[in-house]
């Protein structure tokens, strides 16, 4: 279930094995070093690294046992925190709550820890609400190694990923000590298993495939490198022609030295969703999507919205029409990765993710949920499918089959309704935010296209309610911040940092729909901070004027309104607002026209509440073209680029 593989490195101690991600080797060495350690501190360190190593190997019970030893050796808050999460992954929620509460006493008030306490208390109730209509069984295809990421193939089969002993090649994955993973194919009941098409399986790690609805396109992950060093996971695709799969190719938007994984097709195969860090500046994985263009090529990916992506990991997306299933370890759940679903509403916005019930979800990792519309259905069957889980099974991750059945409810004689007092629900609201800045196609040129975003660490964040500052906090080095807030309130968040323009957003917790079992609600937001480019002209896009006119058209107001907001968020800022024309027309006329247009824009800002002392209008006519060209030879696009309105920060 991991993304990449580390390179082989000669190790002679447990710490080196751990740092090079050779966790299987690390456990063997660290156990010996723990026994030989003399000081309490050294034993605590070895026990902690053993806990981490077993965690990465997904051996939760062993991991918790070593975290417990680390805390007994007084290793500190880090071990206590991981121990609390370990208890949570085992479903030992009472122990998790106690450990998190002890951690609070150790490190002081931390909203993220209080949030986990609330989630664990709710999980005690969630795990006891098992819906009778779900029947879950382990697949016969499971082995002592890992089997995961099932996907329907050619209507009659299921393709999955496994690192079982018959996988291609002789190399071992340093992370787990097992063979590199391959793609396999099984019958629905798991009784017949064989390697998938040989064109897909190589000596590298392959896995997590998906197929188009006609089964003639395949997308999957392959982790490899051409040189000595870490192997990165890339998204691959192959096309089937005349019954044969062609040599897989790397998708064109995939960048080097970044990990991509777990592709899924949604919306009639027109959107490809996958998990990645993209820019490798954050610690956790998010979901991204690429749209297939009219030419059949996949476009540059975009990040899924904040209602889906969180401060934690979002992974293993699967598609079902316009419904997206995915797993998260941060949205409130039972522990580890939980499966959630979201769909596009009438406004083409993704709905708040809904956690799937027990027994689909468990305290362990649960992921890769897929509906099987080709399954044979009984008279009471409503839905069938598969998912993966690390709950107690034969090996590491296992494949489970599920069936949702119709449950006949006994008829109950109708009685007069009894009106009872409904206890007030105690819902805890948390604001999980991220401060980011744009990455431009041309570095540090805000007039070029934004290609991605990266976090702004240690930014100041103020949370206000009716102009009253409720919290004054900072984002962490990954740009994240977390704060507990109240329900049924309106808020303003203001973020700022030295050498950046401050920015604000508004949101509220009024009328948020909360699941009947939910008592922890997390609201995810992103705030974009732009760097201050003092003395550099920044073009305001989409400001157009009628021919030889200077008045502000309706379609020019939105970009000017954004400028108004920027100036209000940064009250000490002074700008020059300039207007330019193309080279056509008389020089004096163009100069006068540009001055009138600049003045018209400034007057609009003044009418919107910006002090006139902060604004300087300046018309340049045709004297400073953005595109240098002979006037008669300029293209219409070059003329358009030269007819621009821009602003420059002057102090």
Task: Identify the CATH class of the largest domain.
Answer: Mainly Beta
Helix/strand/pairing class, anyone?
Answer: alpha+beta
User: Could you name the CATH topology of the largest domain?
Assistant: Neuraminidase
Full CATH superfamily name of the largest domain:
TolB, C-terminal domain
Number of structural domains: 4
Any idea what the radius of gyration is? Answer: 29 Å
Could you list the spans in which at least 5 consecutive residues all have pLDDT below 50? Answer: none
The helix count comes to: 10
Shape estimate = globular
Percent helix, as a range, is: 10-25%
Give a description of the structure.
By secondary structure, the chain is α+β, with helices and mostly antiparallel strands. The protein is built from 10 helices and 35 strands. Strands 6, 7, 8, 9 and 10 form a 5-stranded antiparallel beta sheet that branches. The protein has a 4-stranded antiparallel beta sheet with strand order 1-21-20-19, with no helix packed on it. A 4-stranded antiparallel beta sheet has the order 2-3-4-5, with no helix packed on it. A hairpin with a 5-residue loop joins β6 (205-211) and β7. α6 runs antiparallel to α7. The longest helix has 21 residues, at 587-607. The radius of gyration is 29 Å and the shape is globular. The protein starts with 13 loop residues before the first helix and ends with a strand.
């Amino acid at each position: 279930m991991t993304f990449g593989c580390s390179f082989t490195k000669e190790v002679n101690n447990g710490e080196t094995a751990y740092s090079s991600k050779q966790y299987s080797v690390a456990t063997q060495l660290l156990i010996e070093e723990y026994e030989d350690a003399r000081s309490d501190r050294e034993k605590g360190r070895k026990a902690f690294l053993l806990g981490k190593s077993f965690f990465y190997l997904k051996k939760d019970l062993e991991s918790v046992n070593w975290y417990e030893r680390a805390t007994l050796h007084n290793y500190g808050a880090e071990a206590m925190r991981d121990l609390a999460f370990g208890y949570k992954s085992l479903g030992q929620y009472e122990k998790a709550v106690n450990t998190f509460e002890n951690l609070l006493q150790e490190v002081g008030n931390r909203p993220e820890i209080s949030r986990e306490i609330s989630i664990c208390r709710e999980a005690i109730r969630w795990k006891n609400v098992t819906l009778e209509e779900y029947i879950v069984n382990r697949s016969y295809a499971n082995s002592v190694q890992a089997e995961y990421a099932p996907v329907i193939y050619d209507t009659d089969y299921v393709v999955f990923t496994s690192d079982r002993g018959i996988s291609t090649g002789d190399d071992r994955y340093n992370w787990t000590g097992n063979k590199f993973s391959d793609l396999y194919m099984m019958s629905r009941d798991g009784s017949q298993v064989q390697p998938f098409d040989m064109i897909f399986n190589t000596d590298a790690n392959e896995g997590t495939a998906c197929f188009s609805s006609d089964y003639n396109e395949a997308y999957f992950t392959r982790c490899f490198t051409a040189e000595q060093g870490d192997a990165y996971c890339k998204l691959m695709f192959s096309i089937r022609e005349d019954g044969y799969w062609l040599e897989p190719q790397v998708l064109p938007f995939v960048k080097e030295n970044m990990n991509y994984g777990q592709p899924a097709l949604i919306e009639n195969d027109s959107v490809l969703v996958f998990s990645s860090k993209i820019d490798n500046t954050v610690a956790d994985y998010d979901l991204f999507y690429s749209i297939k263009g009219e030419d059949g090529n996949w476009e540059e990916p975009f990040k899924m919205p904040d209602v889906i992506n969180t401060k934690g990991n979002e992974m293993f997306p699967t598609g079902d029409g316009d419904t997206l299933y995915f797993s998260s370890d941060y949205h409130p759940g039972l522990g580890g990765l939980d499966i959630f679903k979201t769909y596009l509403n009438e406004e083409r916005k993704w709905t708040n993710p809904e956690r799937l019930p027990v027994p689909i979800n468990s305290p362990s990792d649960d992921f890769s949920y897929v509906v099987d519309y080709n399954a044979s259905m009984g008279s009471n069957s409503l839905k069938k499918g598969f998912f993966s889980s690390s709950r107690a099974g034969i090996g590491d991750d296992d494949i489970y089959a599920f069936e949702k059945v119709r449950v006949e409810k006994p008829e109950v004689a109708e009685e007069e309704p009894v009106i009872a007092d409904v206890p007030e629900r105690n819902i805890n609201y948390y604001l999980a935010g991220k401060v980011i800045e744009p990455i431009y196609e041309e570095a540090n040129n805000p007039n070029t296209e934004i290609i991605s975003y990266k976090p702004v660490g240690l930014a100041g964040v103020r949370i206000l309610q009716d102009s009253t500052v409720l919290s004054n906090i900072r984002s962490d080095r990954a740009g994240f911040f977390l704060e507990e807030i109240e329900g049924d309130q309106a808020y303003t968040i203001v973020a700022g940092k030295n050498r950046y323009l401050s920015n604000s957003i508004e949101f509220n917790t009024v009328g948020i729909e909360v699941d009947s079992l939910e008592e922890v609600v997390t609201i995810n937001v992103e705030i974009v901070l732009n760097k201050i480019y003092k003395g550099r002209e920044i073009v305001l896009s989409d400001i157009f004027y009628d021919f030889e006119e200077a008045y502000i058209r309706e379609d020019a107001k939105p970009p000017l309104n954004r400028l108004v907001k920027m100036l209000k968020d940064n009250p000490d800022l002074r700008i020059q607002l300039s207007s330019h024309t193309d080279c056509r027309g008389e020089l004096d006329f163009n100069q006068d026209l540009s001055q009138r247009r600049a003045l018209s824009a400034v007057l609009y800002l003044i009418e919107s509440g910006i002090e006139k002392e902060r604004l300087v209008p300046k018309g340049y006519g045709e004297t400073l073209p953005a595109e240098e060209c002979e006037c008669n030879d300029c293209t219409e696009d070059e003329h358009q680029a030269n007819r621009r309105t821009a602003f420059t920060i002057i102090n």
